[in-house]
Amino acid sequence: MRFSLKSPLSPWLPVLALSLSAVCATAQADTTLLNVSYDVTREFYKDYNQAFARHWKQTTGEALTLNQSHGGSSKQAGSVVAGLAADVITMNQATDIDILAERGALVPADWAKRLPHNSSPTSSVTVILVRKGNPKQIKDWADLARPGVSVVIPNPKLSGNGRYTYLAAWGAVIKSGGKPEQAKALVQKIFANVPVFDGGGRAATTTFAQRNIGDALATFESEVPLIQNEFNGDYQVVYPKTTILAENPVSVVDKVVDKRGTRKQAEAYLKYLYSEEGQAIAVKHNLRPRLPSLLKQHQARFIGVSTFTVDEVFGGWKKAQADHFRDGALYDQITAAGRK
Fold it and tell me: What is the pTM (predicted TM-score) of this model?
């Protein structure tokens, strides 16, 4: 249909144009959020995003598009510092959120105080996955240091998974009454037995399960069912006598959400992780929930094991990073000695 300037509808054309513009603007105004996360949370956040988008739509009427980005935790955090516009960041160690405060003022220094449990809605523990029948009879961290044992661990310089494994082995020695020199010697032998240093936990899983490299894989407890299902392998999980509690901190990226106008949605996204539905999805993906009722209900899945925290043994993540993982620190010394 064409309208002439003399058409009786002519006076209404500007109003009609404005109305159509408003409709188009509304259609395009649905909010998007980007969650930048570590390597092994793809499946968890895929399920969680669907649940939260549904909850948000029912609660507010607003449609959300939730996007995910995954990789080695430190590499991901570095990407956010470099300009990747993450509305939220969900990591497996505090240092990978601390650097957003230290290097770019993207979050406040006290970000961990904004949500319960130091802003960590879930946790896991570091375990050892071995092949069917456990042919090398691996039962504890010391067995990974034996000659002839090959263990797959992602690079601690790039991966929180790798750092947790390093600290788990070191801390187990300290918790049993050993000295730092003994812990260093054990960790040096373990890392001398690593054939491939992958950049993240998922790449290490591929090396172990798909490429069939290594006698053992050090990984998070939450990864074990996924590996068993995805690769159809008959693997066994070994719980060391003492291991580390891996807490999974989260934060809104303040500088980004304030610029984009997404603070309300981003904060709600993280708070819903603590809800009964959010915690139930965590359980589904073998992440240890914070709700005591759910933890008790699924105690057969989450085996009781002696754990310690980074704060307890290493004085917190900042000190652990400085002592062990900064350039030239203990990890670099250990790997350099292993190459000689």
Answer: 0.81
| Share in percent of the chain as helix, strand, coil (round to 5) | 50, 15, 35
State the DSSP code for 210: I
The CA–CA distances, whole Å, from 45 to 37, 127, 180, 199, 265 equal: 9, 22, 38, 21, 16
In the prediction, which pLDDT does 29 show? 52
Q: What Å distances lie between residue 279 and 39, 99, 137, CA to CA? A: 20, 27, 35
Q: Pick one of 3.40.50.300, 3.30.420.40, 3.40.190.10, 3.20.110.20 as the CATH number of 28-120+249-274.
A: 3.40.190.10
pLDDT digits (tens, 9 = 90+) for 22-55: 333 333 457 999 999 988 899 999 999 999 999 9
Among 3.20.20.80, 3.90.1170.50, 3.40.190.10, 3.40.50.1380, what is the CATH number of 123-246+302-339? 3.40.190.10
Measured CA to CA, the distance from residue 48 to residue 45 in angstroms comes to: 5
